[in-house]
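Notes to self after the Tuesday call (sharing in case useful).
The group wants a holo model before anyone commits to mutagenesis around the pocket. I volunteered. Ligand is acetyl coenzyme *A. Logging inputs and output together so the record is complete.
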Amino acid sequence: MLTPNPPSACVSSIIGTGSYMPEKILTNDELSKIVETSDEWISSRTGIRERRIAADDQATSDLASEAARRAMTAAGVTPEEIDLIVVATVTPDMFFPSTACFVQKKIGATNAVCFDISAACSGFLYALQIARHFLNAGTRTTALVIGAEKLSTLINWKDRNTCVLFGDGAGAVVIRAEDPGKDAPGRVLSTVMGSDGTLTDVLKVPGGGSACPITAENVASRPNTIHMEGRETFKHAVTRMCKASEQALEAAGLTKSDIDMVIPHQANARIISAIADRLGLPMEKTFMNLDKYGNTSAATIPVALDEAHRQGKIKRGDVVLLVAFGGGFTWASSVVRW
Ligand code: ACO
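Result:
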């Protein structure tokens, strides 16, 4: 599904990044005391060595707000300049109000329109695309796009198939509408997104919503936790992320040889190396931090982008490919000229 990128009133540029990871570290060895697993199994199958766990009194909006403050500081904008906040999350503070409204209150972005979107691990790139359309159309000027999750609240700590994979965290970018003639850094050149709702059963949290409310009868079977067919997810993730990468490059008028750095969704090192392999890219052009954080769903890409930038791994003018895949299934990609 190739998204047209028509000429528009403005272009969108990422002008600041920020991230916040909770302090508490949960290592593979610590997990092996909770479920029957081992550091060897987890790190060899996934590349994950540890993950962060938010404090009991930290909601998703607290993680998101701290990431947002850091992104605003990096961008040099005040909260009042933000006129759009889109939060991608599958772990909202509440069903409503939106987590974005809580973020608005916490950071004092009094002029913003705020809403959440739900696209699981592709959520941040969906949110980036949505915000970019507002900016390119000239209806908003400065947006906060945030991916934030407290996935520890959706984990069944007795299920070794899933509990070893996930963690908590938040990342954010500030994007601004720019004159198309201006050579601004961070320009979003293309965005592509897709979905396949026939595969909703493969990766889901089946309970806690309107289809299966939590009751005294079903609570013991933990329907409000992540259920996943790992191998099926793996297969689709590789295929879809490769295709989406090619489409985003095509939409930007670029080819694989133009890529300086890929920032992929951080689910599994084996998924990432399969993608690098299929795109014909050396692993040095692929950013990974999942060893420290595991899979933080919508937060992985903005956190990785922030770290890649702060570590000097991407520099002005680099072609950066962002690509994600998640429950739904959903997938998305974007090319940014840094
Ligand atoms: N520790 C030890 N053994 C385990 C663990 C564990 N944590 N988890 C599963 N096993 C066992 C299984 O019980 C099974 O044992 P059995 O053969 O006796 O039945 C064996 O290991 C193999 O299980 P598989 O599920 O076949 O293992 P696989 O090699 O497929 O690896 C994994 C599992 C890591 C989940 C892999 O399928 C995967 O990464 N899939 C992608 C899923 C993913 O990343 N999802 C995140 C959300 S979607 C996204 O972000 C893209």
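Two things stood out.
The pocket of acetyl coenzyme *A is lined by residues 37, 41-42, 45-46, 121, 160-161, 164-165, 203, 228, 230-231, 233-234, 237, 265, 267-268, 295, 325-326 (CB under 6 Å).
The chain has two domains: 2-178, 187-337.
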